[in-house]
């Protein structure tokens, strides 16, 4: 559904009827420098609505099965894209990066931008950043993510992103794999993300939480973050909406937009 148009940054929200999409619509409407021009839901033609609404930025909070197609459609319609939907892997990110390169090569300027953020919460982004920094100093590392039981994908994108960052830091430091004598019962050891074990808990009453566990002989470091309310994601979402237009190409992770150096 096309809502309206004006001179502020025009934003379309994909998955607008969902929990995150609804919050995003409200946050965009409350921001003076942004204007909500379209609410897009399942069954809508994303490219057509983005084009007709004149949206400059499309924000996708839909479902893992639809998000990649939505991003390609929004790019074809001329919008920059902010993605909060989880479920992205190297292949899907690679296809979006290729699409962006094609668009950049076909135009005069640097081309559009796509910002995929597995987590827009400041506490989660800081936890991931601190975990990546700590990773090289510990023999063992595992990630536990805990979410509400209505979440459809597991492990969470945040946990995958955290584990991948830990794995990269361990590889760079030349660490061996975390010690693990398991010979059977691998199902109980969680998912393997680049060699880092990730465990997913689904429990009524939870929202979004993550624990990163590091161990050495005789010591342990636990980094924990808790998101209690979806409102906590909105400052990060709005920051991404404001920044994506000046970041051509693919950016993965809100930490790249925050000054965390
Ligand atoms: P939700 O309440 O289930 O909302 C998803 C919405 O997407 C629904 O309104 C759904 O419509 C709609 N939808 C389904 N297929 C679609 C399509 N092809 N095109 C457009 N819209 C479509 O889910 P949520 O809790 O808002 O979460 C959405 C996503 O954001 C999930 O992947 C979640 O893990 C992620 N998330 C990310 C962050 C972050 O910080 N990055 C934070 C929280 C959640 P119907 O109900 O009609 O099917």
UniProtKB/TrEMBL annotation:
NAD(+) binds at residues 15-20, 84-86, 117-120. InterPro entries: DapB_C, DapB_N, DapB_N_CS, DHDPR_bac, NAD(P)-bd_dom_sf. Catalyzes the conversion of 4-hydroxy-tetrahydrodipicolinate (HTPA) to tetrahydrodipicolinate. The keyword Transcription regulation does not apply. GO terms for cellular component: cytosol. SUPFAM superfamilies: Glyceraldehyde-3-phosphate dehydrogenase-like, C-terminal domain, NAD(P)-binding Rossmann-fold domains. Transmembrane segments: none annotated. It holds the Pfam family DapB_C. The keyword Membrane does not apply. The active site is at 147 (proton donor/acceptor), 151 (proton donor). (S)-2,3,4,5-tetrahydrodipicolinate binds at residues 148, 157-158. This is 4-hydroxy-tetrahydrodipicolinate reductase. Belongs to the DapB family. Keywords: Amino-acid biosynthesis, Cytoplasm, Diaminopimelate biosynthesis, Lysine biosynthesis, NAD, NADP, Oxidoreductase.
């Amino acid at each position: 559904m096309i809502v309206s148009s004006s001179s502020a940054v025009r934003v379309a929200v994909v998955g607008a009827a969902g929990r995150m999409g609804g919050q995003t619509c409200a946050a965009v409407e409350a921001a003076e420098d942004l204007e909500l021009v379209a609410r897009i839901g399942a069954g809508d033609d994303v490219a057509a609505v983005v084009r007709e609404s004149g949206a400059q930025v499309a924000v996708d909070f839909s479902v893992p099965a639809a998000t990649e197609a939505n991003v390609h459609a929004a790019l074809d319609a001329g919008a920059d894209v902010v993605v909060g939907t989880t479920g992205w892997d190297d292949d899907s990110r690679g296809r979006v990066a290729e699409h962006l390169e094609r668009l950049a090569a076909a135009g005069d300027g640097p081309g559009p931008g796509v910002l995929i953020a597995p987590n827009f919460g400041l506490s989660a982004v800081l936890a991931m950043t601190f975990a990546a920094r700590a990773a090289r100093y510990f023999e063992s590392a595992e990630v536990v993510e805990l979410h509400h039981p209505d979440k459809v994908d597991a492990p969470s994108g945040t946990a995958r992103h955290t584990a991948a960052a830990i794995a990269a830091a361990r590889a760079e430091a030349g660490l061996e794999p975390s010690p693990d004598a398991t010979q059977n019962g691998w199902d109980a050891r969680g998912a393997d993300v680049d060699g880092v074990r990730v465990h997913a808990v689904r429990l009524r009453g939870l929202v979004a939480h993550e624990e990163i566990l590091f161990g050495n002989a005789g010591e342990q470091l636990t980094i924990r973050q808790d998101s209690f309310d979806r409102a906590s994601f909105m400052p990060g979402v709005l920051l991404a909406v404001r920044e994506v237009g000046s970041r051509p190409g693919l950016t993965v992770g809100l930490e790249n937009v925050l000054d965390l150096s």
